[in-house]
């Protein structure tokens, strides 16, 4: 079998945290605080749409052989990724009634999130690939001893490469993603007793990713814009009020970095990401409208790819947040799953 | 010599049977519709698991699956769920006769019958769905892969280990304990590995991920002494004339309330989308006529999440609005957190629930070249279901009043005591090997209920029962196996008035929840299932 046929199995899209959006807790009334933290957590979940480091690593490996960075028509590939993120912060719990603070508390909080995700890519055409991502999330909040194990938000992505790859020229891929709200919504739980595993709203993202091979280095960048769908008919107790509507913020995410092939078997990559999100509006039953201000957040990520066999590259990554609301630590592992037994031999 | 051999085999089987504890044999909805072959043998297949259902019954059985195989099963279920309510002459609440006042008796009858054959299914995002009055169809499937020459077999099974749901018609007398109920567990993926250690021993380990749902719609009423007092007061002050003689000091006539008047309706929908379980199995086949197997499934701690919606009747809300609007009512209502008459309460809810661990062991003895006998005993840790703790996201009026009378309620939590006990059940299966292709099967399983006498109800009517099964196994060709089965489960319970604290107790503090206080109740459940499984190499 030539390498072209095996190549689809190598397309990992994983290990990456992108598009961080956040909230400034102090600028909000107490009611919105829980939500802003939730927003933060949501934002910290990976945006799988971005052209990511591990994918670029593979391009380094196979720069000479590739015409398309997507998979071939009619083929499919399954990838598994495991991600861990740690998020620790101090939360201010302030209750302001008639302009005077009634309750003031500083709450330390630590959250561990383990995400197992399965990504299925299918080559619709030689230059169009559709994929589905199914995340299974386990979350632990150490401070309040909460835990959750549930599905995350399942998402569907289509990637399109308008031009065939020409050595020496940049490669461009456009993508669009629809994210469902199959995970546990942060707006439909009892915030004191449960954790969410999803965003709680549908969203659509569009973007493009660009890469250029400068042997032995690949430089890459990606930009994406996310438009969420408003959520209404909520009935959630937050503080002393009931949350009824959420208008999540639009957000923009930019990332850039490079990968460097140390040898045929090992490569390293470094990337940085910056996210900007607009205002989020929460509407309560009492008529109060709370707004989380716009934010900027950033993240650094380092990845190493190791070739374990001709057709398999395992990627490891470690990252850290650059801004207050980003996760303090990220770790991940991704590898292709090859259930050869299921295929006709 | 030959006779001696047969005697030895019979003796072995007999010894095992005598060792079994002569206690109650038990189970809830467990194993009522997993695999046609298992059902036809009374679920006694731990020592001889076959097909992908091994993943559920004994993962070590996967090691015997060679090559690549695919299995589809279709189970059809016919449900007949009955409850009979009987009011004795003396049944009364604060002097008001049950027969004359309880609307389920149509004004004077002494017997009311509830019957449903409509199955219901919980569908994520939609809630409880009523299915047509036809046999409900449950399709399961799975596959196994064993690379040539390897001792390891990988398998996956997608199935419903426990599915129970029904929908009662409008006006059904049992509507106060479940107008519609769905309690179901569906394992959507269960990757498992079987390993053949040597010719005698095999072992299997796997993980199953399941979706668990618990949903219920029910009407509410409270035939309680205190409500009886209210009814008598309303009669005494002639509320039916439309006047409220004691206003503005005391409002008693805002709406008609009484022991048998509806308070409202409650709808609960909760689910957990990932509930993992560890599966472990061992299989020992020292000779061609004897085998032993064991199977363990770990407990799974869940936090079911979902919504509740409590909608009160106009009479109930009106009564409390009028009451709390009066001078006396306002003062006392505040002191005792009595309801203020909100017409509807809804929000988010969580229920902590542990799916119990399960252990099963059994033997299979080929007592004659044409006959095999298999025997299983199974233990399930239902004592993990000591209580259901319902945690609401806000303070409920309903609970505010209930907590005055019951230690099980606080302003935002409600504990439903269950006090379930561990269960042992016993299965027996006989297989006749007619020829190399055809097997005939008969089986029986004694299933005792984990529900103690004082907690029986008509909501989950799976009381003590017996499962009968019969089936055929046919080897179509070298690569194809077909199993057919028919099974019948029946359960009957007579619950004398005042004996169950979750159904018909008459104590004053039982405000949550005895909707049939003082009535004798008989429950009858029959489940007929028939189905087939088809296994083929691919």
Could you explain how this protein is built, in words?
The complex is a heterodimer of chains A (345) and B (538). By secondary structure, chain A is mainly beta. Chain A has one domain: Lipocalin, CATH 2.40.128. Chain A has three helices and 17 strands. Chain A starts with a helix and ends in an 8-residue tail after the last strand. The model of chain A is unreliable at 1-68 and 341-345 (pLDDT under 50). Chain B has 538 residues and is mainly beta. Chain B has one domain: Porin. Chain B has helices spanning 2-19, 36-40, 54-57, 98-101, 225-236, 314-325, 327-336, 397-405; strands spanning 68-86, 92-93, 96-97, 111-116, 118-123, 127-130, 136-145, 152-167, 180-189, 192-196, 201-220, 264-284, 290-297, 300-312, 344-355, 358-368, 371-380, 387-392, 413-417, 423-433, 438-447, 465-477, 480-495, 520-537. In chain B, the strands form two sheets. Chain B has a 22-stranded antiparallel sheet that branches. Chain B has a two-stranded antiparallel sheet with strand order 2-3. In chain B, α6 crosses α7 (327-336). Chain B is elongated and about 90 Å long. Residues 10-27 of chain B have low confidence and may be disordered. The A-B interface holds A 136, 147-151, 182, 184, 188-194, 235-237, 341-342 and B 68, 143, 145, 147, 154, 209, 272-276, 303, 305, 307, 346-350, 391-394.
